[in-house]
Amino acid sequence: MDKEAQRAHHDLGGASKFMCEPVDIEPHTPTAFDREVDALRQMLAAKKLMTVDELRRGIEAIPEADYHRLSYYRRWIRSITDTLLRHGVITETELRAALGAE
Amino acid sequence: MFAAGETVRVKDAWPEASGPVHIRTPHYVRGVVGEVVRHLGDFPNPEDLAFARPAERRPLYHVRFRKGAIWPEARPDDELLIEIFGHWLERP
């Protein structure tokens, strides 16, 4: 079978679908949200609650449509949330309460 | 273990087709023949780390491919150098 047809949706290297799109190489200033997500990931690693390998796995597990729609750090927070729920570090009730409180 | 200069083929395996996995071997080099450039060291297998499982240390290699072997439309003698874990390599 054609390799490209077998690739996982996040395995983008050399995918012809993206070859005609210019690559954005401009530096981007992180938003306050981006910085907060980055800090959260560093704290979770320091406390040994989550590794970068788990972060990557969680990002790769985001369904294709969401994967392409979400910004870089929104993919991170999605992965972090899924991982912490799976490990029982936070519960869905706590998450809903925290989101509802905003 | 593989030695520098050894010819290797990346396994034509597609574990992503049968369930959740985390792999560091890009789709476009699966089944392609290349050359081991150097052993980079042994590292805990990220395929297990990604699921918070105990991870064995596995050898990681720099493997060089001719671009023409991967993308026929590329300049064939350009090279592509990728880090690939030993358990993804076999002797052709």
Written overview of the protein:
The complex is a heterodimer of chains A (102) and B (92). Chain A is mostly helical and 102 residues long. Chain A has one domain: Cyclin A, domain 1 (Orthogonal Bundle). Chain A has helices at 3-6, 32-46, 52-60, 64-69, 72-87, 92-100. The longest helix of chain A has 16 residues, at 72-87. The mean pLDDT of chain B is 95. Chain B has helices at residues 46-49, 67-70, and strands at residues 7-10, 33-44, 57-66, 79-85, 89-90. Chain B is built from two helices and five strands; from the N terminus they run E-E-H-E-H-E-E. The longest helix of chain B is centred in the middle third of the chain and has 4 residues, at 46-49. Chain B has a single domain (7-13, 27-90), classed as Roll (SH3 type barrels), CATH 2.30.30.50. A five-stranded antiparallel β-sheet of chain B has the order 4-3-2-1-5. Chain B has 92 residues and is mainly beta. Chain B is globular, with a radius of gyration of 14 Å. The A-B interface holds A 3-4, 6-8, 11, 13-14, 51, 53-54, 56-57, 60-61, 87 and B 14, 16-17, 20, 22, 26-28, 30-31, 46, 49-52, 70-71.
Key features of this structure:
heterodimer, A: 102 residues, mainly alpha, Cyclin A, domain 1, 6 helices, globular, B: 92 residues, mainly beta, SH3 type barrels, five-stranded antiparallel beta sheet, 9% helix
